[in-house]
Design goal:
The structure holds two protein chains of two kinds. Chain A is mainly alpha-helical. In chain A, about 75% of the residues lie in helices and about 0% in strands. A six-stranded mixed sheet of chain B has the order 6-7-8-3-9-10, with helices on both faces. Chain B has a five-stranded antiparallel sheet with strand order 13-12-11-14-20. In chain B, strands 15-19-16-17-18 form a five-stranded antiparallel sheet. Helix content of chain B is about 25%, strand content about 35%. Chain B is of the alpha+beta class. Classes of the chains: A mainly alpha, B alpha+beta.
């Protein structure tokens, strides 16, 4: 990158400092300060109290439920995202733009509405409420509902990340593999997957962060039963409302830690992905079969 | 392996890309599909490979119908235009790919694969790049690796899409000669697509000229250049000067010249157009047997050739290009503005509007 500063191309020094300063101030006010606040509040009564708060059975149950929800939602989204991106990027079919719109739907719908949809469908007064009640299946105010809501809100992450990557790569390598006698399965594992692995990992990291941090949709379907249907973000809210600040901030610090780990992992994956792309040949425009 | 293409039609969202294409490619030939972009040549190649399906018609390999057979089972080697090397694999793994994806029962042993890959790398003269990644190769090297990879599966047919398209002029020239020699060595039936008439002439033993989804002419390079079947072929294979005339009594009359009509032409009275290549023009100072008259507007010395531009009398933008070797020009030099007559040494007449 060209880093020489030419006076003819740059803004005056005071203006640059003003812009950078504004950026940093913003970052400090909205990111660094809250993070510091979370940690100070969590440790206000010492490390002992902090650890005790985290070892409460209800806190452990919340952590467990969060891990279960993410553990189901992320693999599901991984499979769905790869298949959807594969279909959209490599094939031409009717209804393609409709599918893309549907994938984006969870981004445009408020998470609370998303949760409400499931209450309307599976809730006691919902479409299937009677049937579920008779067969003693609990969806709303139980773990399945939380998983469903999590899957819904994280739906677009993997697919959205992969579609541009796969579209940019075109189909030439896959076609080459087919002419060389590879089956569809071999082509996917040996050609497609290695080409998308960094994009895929990036999508999974973002998906996981969202799955663990989701509040709105999960809050609607959860029912807030302590030790049973509370995920970590919901648990934080309850503790806070009970003025149990140390425990609330201790649990919040876990989520903050998750955010920091996600950020680090995301940067690492971006860096590796770019390094790999730099190695890749210059992307030529996809060849249309119409010549 | 011979390839027979029968009545193939292909549409792409309303566009008729191939129209009733019939073509026979005999065993062991090196055939060029030549035409401007959008003429359907790449579509035809991809249909032969099985990467596209024709809307109607059939493809037969050695008499056997393969129209519905999966790409994987056709036994074609395909060299893609942007090479499509697997960029996360080394050159060795790229070339070995076709062998390593075979079912266990048919797969050669590790040692056999290694031997075969090294033989192929030797064939394309690139043994020393086995451990490199495609991104570390030059364009010409990538092209040769793509070829080695396609040959690894011992294809019965080799198909190449614009094999020299993305290379610079010198590398292209070397590779053309090299491909020609390679084909003499391995004799696999090969078809390549190109839009460059020089390339088609130089490399192939047979040229298929295509335009707007149709085959215009099939023949040896000499035939298509020397006896173009249609106006399109004549124009596409080199620059031509056009002269308008009339058909009358079964002859074409252009200027002072009476020329025979092509045998399939309509002999009724009508318009005709004559094609005359720049090197087929003689410059004379008397009007007998002249096709047109004009005056010299430009004389350009281009290395061993001299190009003379003559403006035709009474015609706007009627510039005629004449080319002759330097020695011949020096025997009877011209002056700018000089009045001259244009005489054809070889004239091809087409009924106007044909082709």
């Amino acid at each position: 990158m060209n880093t020489t500063t030419s006076p003819t191309l740059n803004e005056p020094a005071w203006f640059r400092r003003l812009l950078i300063g504004a950026g940093l101030a913003f970052l400090g006010l909205f990111l660094a300060l809250p993070l510091a606040a979370v940690l100070t509040e969590a440790l206000r009564q010492g490390v002992g109290a902090y650890l005790v708060a985290l070892q409460e059975p209800v806190a452990l149950a919340a952590i467990k439920l969060t891990l279960i929800a993410a553990g189901i939602a992320v693999p599901l989204n991984l499979i769905f995202g790869v298949t959807a991106a594969w279909a959209i990027a490599k094939f031409e079919f009717r209804g393609k733009s409709l599918l893309i719109t549907l994938i984006d739907l969870p981004f445009s719908v408020s998470p609370v509405i998303a949760g409400l949809i499931y209450v309307l469908i599976f809730g006691a007064q919902g479409w299937f409420g009677q049937y579920l009640f008779e067969n003693d299946i609990k969806v709303i105010f139980a773990v399945p509902g939380i998983v469903l809501a999590t899957v819904f809100v994280t739906f677009p992450f993997v697919a959205r990340e992969l579609i541009p990557v796969m579209e940019e790569q075109g189909t030439a390598e896959e076609e080459a593999a087919l002419t060389l006698g590879a089956s569809g399965w071999q082509t996917f594992w040996r050609v497609t997957l290695p080409n998308i692995k960094w994009g895929l990992l990036y999508g999974v990291i973002l998906c996981n962060a969202r799955a663990m941090g989701e509040f709105g949709a999960v809050s609607v379907v959860s029912g807030h039963i302590r030790g049973e249907t509370n995920t970590l973000p919901l648990h934080v809210e309850i503790l806070y409302n009970e003025y149990n600040f140390v425990a609330a901030f201790a649990c919040a610090s876990l989520l903050a830690l998750l955010a920091l780990v996600t950020l680090a992992a995301k940067s690492f994956v971006e860096w590796r992905g770019q390094a790999q792309r730099a190695l890749a040949p210059i992307a030529l425009p996809a060849v249309q079969p119409s010549t | 392996m011979s390839i027979i293409i029968e009545n193939v039609n292909k549409h792409f969202s309303g566009f008729h890309a191939l129209q009733d294409v019939n073509l026979t490619i005999p065993t062991g030939e090196l055939v060029a599909l030549l035409g401007p972009s959008g003429c359907g040549k790449t579509s035809l190649l991809r249909i032969i490979a099985g990467l596209e399906q024709p809307d109607s018609g059939s493809i037969r390999f050695n008499g056997e119908d393969t129209t519905r057979r999966h790409v994987r089972e056709r036994g074609v080697g395909f060299v893609f235009q942007p090479y499509a090397l697997f960029h996360h694999m080394t050159v060795f793994d790229n070339v070995a790919f076709g062998l390593t994806v075979r079912p266990r029962a048919e797969r050669p042993s590790r040692g056999e694969i290694a031997d075969r890959v090294h033989d192929l790398l030797k064939l394309v003269q690139l043994e020393f790049v086995a451990d490199r990644y495609p991104s570390q190769l030059s364009g010409g090297q990538r092209q040769r690796i793509a070829l080695a990879r396609a040959l690894a599966v011992e294809p019965k047919v080799l198909l190449l899409d614009e094999p020299f398209g993305a290379l610079d002029a010198n590398v292209r020239k070397d590779l053309r000669r090299w491909l020609r020699r390679l084909h003499d060595e391995i004799h696999v039936t090969s078809v390549f697509v190109t839009h460059d008439q020089e390339e088609a002439m130089e490399v192939s033993s047979r040229v298929v000229v295509m335009s707007k989804g149709r085959v215009e002419q099939v023949g040896t390079p000499d035939e298509v250049y020397g006896a173009p079947a249609t106006e399109f072929v004549s124009r596409f294979l080199g620059s031509v000067n056009l002269f308008k005339g009339r058909i009358h009594d079964g002859w074409a009359h252009i200027g002072d010249v009476r020329a025979p009509l092509p045998h399939d032409a309509d002999t009724q009275a009508g318009a005709a157009v004559a094609h005359l290549r720049p090197h087929e023009v003689s410059i004379a100072d008397s009007p007998e047997g002249a096709i047109a008259a004009g005056c010299v507007r430009g004389i350009l010395s281009i290395g061993p050739m001299v190009r003379i531009e003559i403006e035709r009398d009474g015609e706007e933008n009627g510039l005629v290009e004449v080319e002759m070797v330097r020695e011949r020009y020096l025997r009877s030099p011209l002056a700018l503005g000089q009045k001259v007559f244009i005489k054809p040494r070889n004239l091809r007449v087409f009924a106007s509007g044909a082709g």
